[in-house]
Specification:
- The chain is α+β, with helices and mostly antiparallel strands.
- It is built from 2 helices and 6 strands; from the N terminus they run ββαβββαβ.
- The protein has one domain: Ferrous iron transport protein A (FeoA) (SH3 type barrels, Roll).
């Protein structure tokens, strides 16, 4: 693994307000297609706007819209944090 891969984290481990770029998924083929149908692709930037609390989904903002993901889905999306601007 390269040094840059060490900085990858799961979307579910991000904090409120953090921004990141999608790097990879760890879904089976069919689940991966579902995620892509929701508009999630490697290279897309996102921001966490709401975190799970009592079973609520992780809510992200991506390409100008809001999307809610189950924690199980967010656990399988690898991202690279973007530096604050």
């Amino acid at each position: 693994m390269s040094a840059s891969s060490e900085s990858l984290i799961t979307l579910s481990s991000m904090s409120l307000g953090q921004k990141a770029m999608i790097v990879a998924f760890s879904f089976e083929a069919e689940e991966g297609q579902q995620v892509q149908k929701m508009g999630l692709f490697p290279g897309e930037q996102l921001e966490v706007v709401r975190l799970p609390r009592l079973g609520e989904p992780v809510e992200i903002k991506i390409r100008g819209y809001f999307l809610s993901l189950r924690k199980e889905e967010a656990d399988r999306i690898m991202v690279r944090l973007l530096s604050a601007s």
